[in-house]
Amino acid sequence: ERRFLMRTDWGFVHQNPADGLRMTVSAGANVGERLMAVGDRHYGKIRATAVDWLSRVEIDEDRIDDEPRAFSGGMRQRLQIARNLVTGPRLVFMDEPTGGLDVSVQARLLDLLRGLVTDLGLAAIVVTHDLAVARLLSQRMMVMKDGRVVESGLTDRVLDDPRAPYTQLLVSSILQV
Fold first, then answer.
1. Facing residues of 119 across strands?
2. Mean pLDDT in order along the chain per 10 residues (177 residues)
3. pTM for the full predicted model
4. Which CATH architecture has domain 2-138?
5. Is-contact 126 94, C-beta < 8 A?
6. CA separation for the pair 167, 94 (Å, rounded)
C-alpha cells in the first residue's frame, strides 16, 4: 500500500536532486517513468506529457533527451519537481528544496514552487532551516527541536510573534533587512 501511495498520491523532492533522479537516463525518461508506474503505456502521450512538464518547470523541450548529469543544479531540481508532480500527487514532501543553490536560482525555484503548489492545489510538507523559504511556501508551520514540536501555527504568526524560546532564538538569528 505504501509503495502504491508513493507512486500515485505522494511526491518526494530531495535536497540533493541526484537522490531523486536517475542520472543515467534522459530528462524525458525521468518524467516518463513516473507515468509508466501509474499505468500509462502510450509512448507518444508519455513524451508529450514530459515535454509539457519540462516547459512548466522552465526547462527547454530541446533538453528532453539530455541526461540530468548535463544539467545545472537548479535545472536538476526543477526536473525532479516535474518528475514528482507529473502524476498529480495530493501531497508533496520537500526536503530543503533550495539547499545548495545560489541565491538567484533559489528565488526562481521558489517562485516556480509557489506557482505550482497554488495552480495544482497541492498540499506540501516543506522541511527547511531557511525561515524565508518557510514564509514563502507555507501557510502553517511547525518548529521542531530535537525531534519534538516546540511551536506550531500560522506561519506569519509564528515568525512575527514567536512564543517558544527556541523559536524566538531562531527568528532573532535572522538578519533583518
1. none
2. 80 95 98 93 97 97 98 96 94 92 90 91 92 92 97 97 96 73
3. 0.88
4. 3-Layer(aba) Sandwich (3.40)
5. yes
6. 21
